[in-house]
Every structure is written in structure tokens, then in C-alpha cells.
TrEMBL record:
Pathway listed: Protein modification; protein lipoylation via endogenous pathway; protein N(6)-(lipoyl)lysine from octanoyl-[acyl-carrier-protein]: step 1/2
Location of the BPL/LPL catalytic domain: 40-218
GO cellular component, one term: cytoplasm
One of the record's GO molecular function terms: ligase activity
Name of the protein in its database record: Octanoyltransferase
Residues holding substrate: R82, G83, G84, E85, V86, T87, Y88, H89, A149, I150, G151, G162, F163, A164
Reactions accelerated catalytically: octanoyl-[ACP] + L-lysyl-[protein] = N(6)-octanoyl-L-lysyl-[protein] + holo-[ACP] + H(+)
Function: Catalyzes the transfer of endogenously produced octanoic acid from octanoyl-acyl-carrier-protein onto the lipoyl domains of lipoate-dependent enzymes. Lipoyl-ACP can also act as a substrate although octanoyl-ACP is likely to be the physiological substrate.
Extra information: In the reaction, the free carboxyl group of octanoic acid is attached via an amide linkage to the epsilon-amino group of a specific lysine residue of lipoyl domains of lipoate-dependent enzymes.
Site residues, Lowers pKa of active site Cys: K146
Lineage: Bacteria, Bacillati, Cyanobacteriota, Cyanophyceae, Nostocales
Active site per database record: C180
Source organism of this protein record: Cylindrospermum stagnale PCC 7417
Superkingdom of this protein's organism: Bacteria
EC number: 2.3.1.181
Length: 221
């Protein structure tokens, strides 16, 4: 697979947020997308944040991949418009929500997913880790364990949702689901390879790699 690094320089507004409830972030994304559908000339956006514990299911997700009664969950459970199956977000997992107008890049969802994977593979390489892809699945893997999940929604070529990189989370929440509907592969986190790693330091690396891969000028807000 040949990955591409873009050379054009669009502005992209970078929002580094702390812990944010999932529904607040979801509402924010939808608002940003609506504004850009109305006015496609607005700058692109990259939001980096963490969520309190929450389970989310993609639009066509199979509820059988939840191992608990949804009505009795100790954490919030939300079905949203992204692609993909069920996943888990929690502190220590760095979530990225790019709001990009793909008409500026390439109107190709397969290409966009591969570029998001490439961003995270480059981040892992900064730490001397060799991230990989598995052809049948979307996401990034380390030694056969999934460390990053990706799920997107695109409306009139404006993107929302994005990626989640397990930096140093408590992984026990994943035991209550079949993550991304994959039954025979486990979930991992960077802390297993790099003890003491924090989301704060990884934020910088993700922002830099994102800017390189998409060829944007990040403007911190």
C-alpha cells in the first residue's frame, strides 16, 4: 500500500480539549459539520480530547456485541451515525475528530480511512513502534493487538467522528463488548510497550503527524 503525504497547505483549526462528555463532543461535531455544509469555505478542524467512560455503536452495529443489558449499563451507551461496530471510550484514550472538507483533498472514503491509519502509524513510529494494518479491518495494530479504532461519517464530503488511540487507558471496559465486532483479536494500549506514556505528550505527536499527512497548517485555538 502506498501512502501519500499531501503538499497543499490549508488551515486547520486545532482544538486541544480535556475530558469532555461524549454527547457534548457529538453535538459540537454536528454543529461544525452543519456550518461547513452551509459554508464550505470555512477552515477545517481537528479536535483532540478524552471522554469519560462510554460505549458507542455505529449505525449498523450488532447489539449482540454488547455483553451486558444496555438498560442496566454503569456507563452511557449511545448509537451514532458513524460506521463500524461497538467501541469503548475512556480517559487515557486519545480521540481525534477531524472535520475536513474532502473536496480539498480527495473525494474518496477509502483513501481517507487509509490516511487516518497512516497518521497513527506515523505516531507509533515516533516511539519506535511498528504499527500495522490488517487488510480486512480498519484500524491500527501493534503485534497483533488493536491499539487504534477508526469510524467516520461523511456528509456532502464533510467528515465527522474519527479515530481513538489507546494511549494509557484502563482496558477493562473493553471486556464488556466485542470491540469492533472482532472476536479473535485483543485490544492493546501504548502503555504496554512504553510504560509511563501520557495522552498529553501523544497529543503533540498526533497533531504533527496529522499536519504532515494531510498537508495542513495547524492553527491552535
Amino acid at each position: 500500500m502506498t501512502y501519500s503525504i499531501e503538499i497543499h497547505k490549508y488551515r486547520c483549526l486545532l482544538y486541544n480539549q480535556e475530558l469532555m462528555p461524549y454527547l457534548d463532543a457529538h453535538h459540537w461535531q454536528r454543529s461544525l459539520v452543519a456550518e461547513r455544509i452551509k459554508n464550505p469555505s470555512l477552515d477545517d478542524v481537528l479536535i483532540l480530547l478524552e471522554h469519560p467512560p462510554v460505549y458507542t455503536l455505529g449505525q449498523g452495529a450488532n447489539p449482540e456485541f454488547l455483553k451486558f443489558d444496555r438498560e442496566k449499563s454503569q456507563y452511557e451507551v449511545h448509537k451514532v451515525e458513524r460506521g463500524g461496530e461497538v467501541t469503548y471510550h475512556c480517559p487515557g484514550q486519545l480521540v481525534g475528530y477531524p472535520i475536513l472538507n474532502l473536496q480539498r483533498y480527495r473525494q474518496d472514503l477509502h483513501w481517507y480511512l487509509r490516511q487516518l491509519e497512516f497518521v497513527l502509524i506515523r505516531v507509533l513510529a515516533k516511539y519506535g513502534l511498528q504499527g500495522s494494518r490488517i487488510p480486512a479491518f480498519t484500524g491500527v495494530w501493534l503485534e497483533g493487538r488493536k491499539v487504534a479504532a477508526i469510524g467516520i461519517k461523511v456528509s456532502r464530503w464533510i467528515t465527522m467522528h474519527g479515530f481513538a488511540l489507546n494511549v494509557c487507558p484502563d482496558l477493562t471496559g473493553f471486556e464488556q463488548i466485542v470491540p469492533c465486532g472482532i472476536t479473535d483479536k485483543s485490544v492493546g494500549s501504548l502503555a504496554e510497550w512504553i510504560p509511563g506514556i501520557t495522552c498529553q505528550e501523544v497529543r503533540f505527536e498526533i497533531a504533527q503527524c496529522f499536519a504532515e499527512v494531510f498537508g495542513v497548517e495547524l492553527v491552535e485555538c
